[in-house]
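If you are new to this repository, start here. Below is one unmodified record pulled from the training split, so you can see the exact layout before writing a loader.
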Amino acid sequence: MLAGTFSIVAYDQAAGLCGVAVSSRMPAIGALSVFAHAESGAIATQALINPLLGVDGLELLRSHPAEQALHRVLARDPGADARQVAMVDRFGRAAAHTGSETHPWSGHRVGNGYAVAGNILVDGGTVDAMAERFEATAEAPLAERLLAALEAGQGAGGDRRGKQSACLFVHHGHPYPYLDLRVDDHADPVTELRRLYDVAKRELLPFVHALPTRARPAGEFDQLLNLD
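And here is the target side for that same chain:
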């Protein structure tokens, strides 16, 4: 599936969180391109999407740095020249690949703890704006930083074909995600993703913080149950 897309992957070592934010002019981009687990890292696979790069990449990131994991998954893929992949490992080491057959504008930027990538974009200003915004919001929670970077990318032009879907996914090391928000078909998906995130901050994340974990199997629901 060909997907003109812009995305960011990142790992917050201090918080033990990793995540992906992505938007595209195709429906339900989050269903096929987003892979993250705090015990491994985070991956976005796009352009001529190969979800196996995300599945296999996460497994490799458990024991390999991002650059090596990326090299290994691409070496197994006969269509690597048509792929775009961004990944970051649990130590904040990032790597990215933009194949020679991806549609212009296409490219990526790699920084400390993150990578941004995009293809079929208006121009390179999209990934530049994403990197700049992510670095400028270093004191904010990871979910906020990812979403802010996505908003900056959309503001700088985004997918040159238009808008349709967006996703924000954050993982904290438990068997379930910390945050998994998707806008699968919308005229302004990044704006809608911001609205959903604001709702989730108020109404969902307090519940997620109280959920059972392996270390506290009963959860911590008492405070929630005492709310009026």
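Two things worth knowing about this chain: The domain at 2-225 is CATH 3.60.20.10 (Glutamine Phosphoribosylpyrophosphate, subunit 1, domain 1). The chain is about 35% helix and 30% strand.
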